[in-house]
Amino acid sequence: MTQNYTSQSLSIIIPTYNRRDQLLNQLNSIISQDISAIQEILILDNNSNYDVYDLVTTLKCSKIRVIKNSLNIKAPINIANAFYHCKTQWFWLLSDDDESKPDSLTNIIDEISQCSEDVGMIKFAIDRPESKQKDTTVRTLQQYIDFYYDSSHLRRGDLVFISTNVYNVCRLKDYIPFAFEYSYTYIPHLIPIFKGLDEKKILVKFSSIPIVKYIPPRGDGYSFATVGKGLSTLSHIPLNLNKAYRKKFLDICMSITYTTLLKKYVRNDKIDDIDDIRIIYDNVYKYYLSFHSKIKITLFLTLMSSPFLNKITMYMIKNKVTKYIIKGILK
Prior knowledge:
about 325 residues, alpha/beta, Spore Coat Polysaccharide Biosynthesis Protein SpsA, Chain A
């Protein structure tokens, strides 16, 4: 059965922290569109170091509302709070550092109008060349996993990407508490979806229509060392998956490969603690990597775990003395 949605059935919710310029850019990209069909643009300010109210006032848009946390409750809880503070049946969860496309609201409202009442989330596409998402609907968690695992047209990381998700809160209400319970996984916005699909009580609709432009992180707080450790706890979620599908599930949820993780460490790209890498590897990667890959990463971790060998190896890497040896390990 198709529902009839009123003009007040959609909100936009933006969790934010210390990203004044990015937030302003995001808000401008939204209010430049026709926003008459949405109820509000809600900003969840995680106690930023500037006055978000003052910023919003300059835009002169009566539909923007700000909720400021009295202290920094960390990103995962602030994201989960979007489900708690939503006042409408549907909401679009937007990151503060992406940019919505000019026709995004029209496309979202059109897709909502065509949805059955069983749809818990519409997953739209990202506007970037390497991501070509296809139109389909999945009814089980296994189908959801297969969609990402078998899709060479998707970029690793598309699954956990926030700004392409539009949620039906009414359909997800029984699963929203899990977003808070497992917020430490760093993807609380997907936990209700996993649980709903696992119980075969919701549908997820994938749309090939891009609604946001991807803007790479600017180095303002994002750290895969932190996010990766969160993602590495996904095995804590009680899901009815056999061993093969659980391996696939852990694989598709990791936004970068283990080789990229090691390369980030070598480049000191916001990952400078070998213990972080070991934790992530032990909790996730070792469960689905090939035996050959496990041997290589174990060798790397052994070299890096010894202060003496670490110092020598990093010196040799930076001076390209062992360029081809290390390249073989990280290949």
